[in-house]
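Listing 4. Sequential folding, example run.
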Amino acid sequence: MAGARDFSAALPSQSSVSRRPSLLVALGGALAGALVTLPGLGGGTLWDNSETAYGEVAREVLLYHDWLVMHLNGAPWFVQPPLYFWLAAAFAHVLGMAPFALRLPSALATIVMAGAVGYVVARVGSPRAGLLSAIVLSTSLMQAIVGRLAIMDALLDLAVALAILAFFGATQAPDRRVMRRRWLGGFLALALGVLAKGPVALAIVGLVVVPWIWWESRRGRPFARPSAVDWLLGIGLFALVAAPWFVVLGIRVGPAALAQLIGHYTFGRYLGTIENQTGPFWYYIPVLILGFFPWFAFAPPALALAFRAARTRGASLQRLCLVWAILPFVFFSLGQTKLPNYIALELPALAIVVALWFENLLVRRDRRGALVWAALVPATIGGLAIAISIFSRDMHLTADTQKVLGDLVALGSVVLAGSIGTFALIAVPRTVAIAPYALAGASVASILMVVLVAEPHAEPLKPIPQLARIVRAQRLPGDIVAIQGVAGGNALLFYTQPHVATLDGPQGSGRADATDPKRAICGASRAFVVTSKKRPNPDPTYGRARRIVGVADGDILFLYDGPGCTEPS
């Protein structure tokens, strides 16, 4: 069979690198991931909208003692598969219902991904390239953000990365036993990806692995092929892990739940627009530039180098990374629903090619071009600093907003210093090897500044948690909690208790999920309503006493009580 390989000899790149250094690299990579995710992980309140929504679904797993059907606001919820919610609920059960427990699954997934990427690159390339791959990945802005949020994307990104790397490793395996172990590991990761975020895991892994194998065969690169037994075992393991929840859910709730979960919120999300989350075809270009900050300046020469290397027979890893970086980018760009975090699953490929570019820089000593690209980082940061300075000077900002902008300037200064240091280190032949670590160190420092300094300053800009504390302190049995005309319904729900009503405006808004305000306010002994300080005219009270019990930022908390009123018929 063309392109197939027997197991009579190990792949040279793997046999030349012992396993012990690779394990040390994996540990170092995991430590890098931990450094940017664990400090201050539980600091502050959850961010609206996704963190509070997913945190509430995890909380209601424990509240309703139902680990099969997810709930939001007391109603069955068929938007995402359960893996994140199971993990978050389990951590919350042990550690308490707090941001740290809800964000811990994402942090651990990010840490494991850094270790896995470092290990594979160390085995195929060199320990130095492996460690740098993990560090570049961990210190990329979007990777750090996704790893610190109570969302399921970090689990999906980990599962996709593990599946791609496992299938890659299987084709490079030195013998049938190793090949089968890696092959089954890929299917296990694939199953966990489906449980994390549905069939998109299958789509992305297939979109990367299948074209890569075709490219490998075109280059004449020998690689191991799974047997029919390997396929049966892999598919069987995938079905054993991924299928039971979907099957039992369909039996208990009915096929409509699966149609909503897979049809509307998976295929419908790609073919149509969900919750007005859309954008132009080029949407992910600025997202990727910002998400791969501060390493984005090195991505173009690194990709160009990978393309040149891909023409050689032995550059399997470079070909894999090119497919991994390009095809998912095109896939998500063609989708109708767009969110920044979708593109995070290709960051490992970019991190690897950047690390290999720095490795090549040490060998070829071609520093002139490298200096040009390195100069882009401080130039960009300097431009942003000037823009922020002009903006803050010309705008009448609140003290809290000024604090946040001041924090942005400070952390920008840190990255600016690191980027200038990287430029200077590249310019000196003896210090080229440590140049990327200057930028990595600055990135870590800036991330820690954000979570330990900037986030506490941003807390006053979150009105809903402040108003929810007042509701919890004053709420009595029979009271209702509602929100009207302002953002933050998920946060109000998370920081109080289900059920939280969404009220229509006084003139009606036409929202399908909105509740008639008169019916809600008249039908309860008392009603807490979070709304805007800007009041409509007329501003009805429906015959009840209304008083202000809390104000935060642009939101206000009303308490309706006193004599009852007549509900609408």
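-- end of first protein; second protein begins --
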Amino acid sequence: MKRLLLLMISLTAVLSTVNAGAVEYPDWQGFPPMYTIQDMVEFNGTLFCACKGGLFRYNPQTREYTLYYKNHGLLSNDILAVAATLNYLYLGFTNAGLVRFDPVTEQYEQILFPEYTANRNKINVTKIFAMNDSVLYIGHSKGVDKINVYTKELRTFSKLGKYISENSPVSDVKVIKGKIYVCTEFGLAVADESNPDLEFYGNWKNYTYGSSRFNCIERVVDEYDDTIWIGTTGDGILFFNEDINAIQPSGITSGNFYSITKAFDTPCAASNNGLYKKFIRSWYSYDATYLGLKSIVFGSDGNLWVGTSQAGLKCYTSDGYTEIPSVGGPRNSTFYNFYLSDNDNVLWTTTSRKGENYDALVLRYDNVIWTEYREEEGILHTTVDITGDNNGNYWLPSWGKGLYVMTDIGIPDKSTVHVEKVDPAGDIIKYTIGKNFIVCSDLVKDKYGNIWVANHQAQETNSGAVVFDGYPFTKHQTYSPDEDGIASAEIMCMDADNDGWIWLGTYQSGLTGVYVGDDPFDKFDTYTVNLNLDNGLLGMLITTINHDLYGDIWVGTKGGLNRIKKLPDKRLKVEDLSTLLEGGSVEVTSIEVDKYDNKWIGTSVGGLFKIDAKNEAAGHYTTQNSGLFSDMILSLKYDNTHDVLWVGTDTGLNKFYALGTTPEKSDTEIHVFPNPFEIWGTNSFVTFTNLKLMSNIRIYSFNGELVDELVADQSGNSGSAYTLWYGKNFKDETVGSGIYFFTGITTNGRLFKDKMAVIRR
């Protein structure tokens, strides 16, 4: 059955094409992880790599990289597949569909599948096979699509045979010698490409090999064989024997293989254990310099280009790997904790939580330079946080190996990195499991410069929160359930406010407030309050804590947002403020307070919220209306010096200029102010200047609907025209908050397109 393919051009339905080189969200800067390569292709002598952080181009001649990611207009950062035709590239995304990209003009067209866009869960495009500029085979999370871009024809194959489950995810699709080969986790599906009835499972043949999961398939012709090779998970390399119509093993019967190609006149394969090569009729491990290989392409320059899962792009010549420039930027995609040093305004961040990321590291960012601190420098991969003390030390708690302190006076060349373990004998920081596992889950610096450490300790009750006066320390004190009545030693997060309170968020026992006064090393005036569901907490698992400029405590839980107000006689009042997060019981993951007393609230699925100094909802940022890489926010840090909010997500790092950009004015752009435009009443207005006299300016909603049309009929002192907009639509109704786009003609006759934010009070 043939269905219509809707071709839609995307710039929020306003413009006909998107220029990927033009920043779509100028207030947002991005640092995507381009080291995780998921697919790649050569186009006109340059390499294009599909990454978890977007797309990059590498030119071997100039040795230069060009990055494309969501802040430049792409649909998403997570690109799973890329394929080249004579004139275009096709990009496949996670939950964002398919895009046709013109590498010359850097413009793209979004291609939408009507049967999927109506569903909440969109497809993941996992592999693209381009027969030519018009006909594509798209492997995705629910089967295979055959589309003709020019005739707008779509055929969907979700029933790939009786032995493969309907709507099975596809890992690779190829057309080889007139047959369609589809790799799935259940086996291989094969059909005649010319068959008009491939929507029916009876027209597909299935082939399996034990319980192998098939990842990739490729035909390679060399001087010995003309063979269809198959890469699997766990069972090495197989091949399809066309003579007996069966799948058979090769000499490699173990390992995970993701890409096969012909290079140096013989088949080569990319695996988790490195590069493999075939010699005559046998495969063997050829080079294990880099592990975790995901994709290989034999370039027109005679080199084998290798895409890795963690080390970016590599070049393999006939003599072995050769040096190429690093793609730059952060290596990891997750950013769990931030520290902004007071003296030099340098950002530090960690990329692990609970020791779950075994390639985690500590990163330092200073003036576009990234510095990595790894196990080579003595940094554990289980490091979960970083905080600097008043003596120039950096404290590093780990999930499993205890607490460490790092000094580095040779920054950024790492020549003098020195790491020491705090309390190596385990007398202060207690063991969690036996003698080999010590969990320090969080730390915070109080107003006196003391360092508080959460000694997350589940088996005993004589540990909890430990405070040190510095390093080397001369004083320390422990606050525990046994001695001080805290609810639990399973502490997940902490905060130290300016009124002498230490706040402890536990794993499943609610929130504890410990009043320690001016001297936390003397317990004479210690006072403990435990808060739980009966007191109004929205959840017993506390995820984050921070205090505002007026001393109120903001608490994030699995169930929403609480605020703790301090009353006389050390009494506490718990308030439910989840209504400020659009009324949802969303999981709060991070809370940051800026110098204006704005509260920035990160959530697990709902993006970023802003609550102003009046404690009113003042903004909501998601991947749909901002340059956010992901709606899963892991960490936040506000730079009060530059009014920049750092946003750590699960797919990259964002830098948000929270007060807006101040671009250099020129006669090539329309100037709009104020931006954001806050509508307080009937007399609020925004001004558009640098317009051509009597030209039109059109304002569109985020969904592409024309909201209002104005005429630049007023002349300014500079000779350019201007016009005012009072935030009304054609019906004279005040518009709602959101992102709006506008187009107009500048004084030099240039068509200009941009966006503005509207906040309706």
